[in-house]
UniProtKB/TrEMBL annotation:
Native source organism of the sequence: Mycolicibacterium hodleri
This protein's name: Class I SAM-dependent methyltransferase
Coiled-coil ranges from the UniProt annotation: none
UniProt keywords, alphabetically: Methyltransferase, Transferase
Organism domain of life: Bacteria
Signal peptide positions (record): none
GO BP, sorted A to Z: methylation
Single Gene Ontology MF annotation: methyltransferase activity
InterPro entries hit by this protein: SAM-dependent_MTases_sf
Amino acid sequence: MGQLTRGTTGYNRLRRSDRWLVHAPRVRAALLSAAQPLVVDLGYGALPVTTLELAARLRAVRPDVRVVGLEIHPERVHAARAAIEGITPDDVEFGLGGFELAGLQPVLVRAFNVLRQYHVDDVANAWTQMRTRLAPGGLIVDGTCDELGRRCCWVLIDDTGPVSLTVACDPFAIDTPSDLAERLPKVLIHHNVPGQPIHGLLTAADRAWAAAAGHGVFGPRVRWRAMLESLATDGYPVEPPRRRLRDGVLSVPWSAVAPLG
């Protein structure tokens, strides 16, 4: 179920979301509690590299994780299988499938740069199709990033609906946090207008970023952390960073950015 997308991809393009997945408490809990951890990488594109990278990174959480890359175009599936011929990783395979997830029941679905290419009215149905096929306690990550993976945004979804929004970037690659607006998931990008919560959050982040300019002498990562602290002080439900990160990461509950009306 679905439609053919452009299929552009690249090595290490999804590294920021992968790093987040490895350390996010809820994702880790889902992987660790699964009897047989199955992960679907939906719409991996013309090359299978991001699926292989995802499997390698998730092994840090569950060494026995199994990753299935699904594509709606048979030629992409054939190309992926040919690419791994000879190395045959026994924990990674590729198959034909769309939002129906090829009948699988994964504990985690990563769908990056897929729904970005759909009409906004198609998002709810796509989410529903995937949610109803999750294993108990399963999660979905619906995200978008730029071509080099320096600016990323994603929504975490469980079997009841969206849980949180995360924006992540290389702090050296932005002028202001609102630069990430161009990579908002389809469900939010059209709502980035005055009066909507997502616009309010990005505007507040820009103000906090400007106020933290003095921290820039220590580097943009330190300035990003100061921005997060300022947002939290102003009452925004920002998830505090758990450790020093190379990425600039801002996560909030979905209720803080859910579109109005």
